Amino acid sequence: MTTLPPVAQTAPQLYCQLVPLGLADADLGRIREACLLGARVTSSLLRGSGKPFACHLVGVASLVAESRPDDPDAIIAALLHAMYQERVPFGRDRPSRRDRLLTVAGEAVEALVARYDAAGPLEAALPPESVADPAACVVRVMQLADELEDAIDGGPWWHGAPDEGPTVRGGAEFRVARFLSWGPCYAQAPALGAPRLLDRWRAIRDSWAAGPWPAAFRSGERTSFGADPR
């Protein structure tokens, strides 16, 4: 049985994960700035489960670092993967977002974030010919890490309202069924140099086999939402 290490949820936890990798000080500084930026611009945003959005950003970066430990641009892109999404208050419009990303992270990272945003939701397995495209591989690893991170700690089970049925898009049962249907996508992870993502998907699948989790913990929200400051 494979014992999987925890997925980082805070910047210090991510730093502890990265220290043994031997990344250059300049790259560690860029990662720190990306962590701080993500925390600042998502400080009032929660995932549909009620989890702070900033924790999700760190978690995705943690999973990407696990798969691509020698690729700081991929780790930083994972930290900033949501910066082109409208729900994230990051700049007035797309050009201003791009300018800020270029300033903070550089061209290579901005290109990965833009390509990730253009790829849209995870829907199907990556065409075999795309595995030969390094950037396409990084983007697919980011997609797999994004959905996997949302699933840790039972994430999809905490979405939506307690009385929602399984066909309500964004509700708990809908999200769980969708995640479990992505087996063919995660089966490609080894070919992408990210076999641990497949191990983690299987572990989550197996942990959910017992059936639904308590509906009373559901947030009432089907997607990311703003935190109430009261």
Please give a handful of descriptors for the protein shown:
2 strands; 230 residues; mainly alpha; Hypothetical protein af1432; two-stranded antiparallel sheet
Topology:
Blueprint: H1 11-18, H2 25-41, E1 45-46, H3 53-67, H4 72-79, H5 94-105, H6 107-119, H7 134-151, H8 172-180, H9 183-187, H10 195-207, E2 225-226
Antiparallel strand pairs: 1-2
Helix pairs in contact: 1-3, 2-3, 2-4, 3-4, 3-7, 4-6, 5-6, 6-7, 7-10
Which sequence of strands runs across the widest sheet? Answer: 1-2
Structural class: mainly alpha
> What is the radius of gyration computed over CA atoms, rounded to a whole number of angstroms?
17 Å
How would you describe the shape? Answer: globular
What number is the mean pLDDT? 93
Any idea of the CATH class?
Answer: Mainly Alpha
Provide structural commentary.
The protein has 230 residues and is mainly alpha-helical. The protein has a single domain, classed as Hypothetical protein af1432 (Orthogonal Bundle). The chain has ten helices and two strands; from the N terminus they run ααβααααααααβ. It has helices at residues 11-18, 25-41, 53-67, 72-79, 94-105, 107-119, 134-151, 172-180, 183-187, 195-207; strands at 45-46, 225-226. The protein has a two-stranded antiparallel ribbon. The N and C termini lie far apart (45 Å). The mean pLDDT is 93.
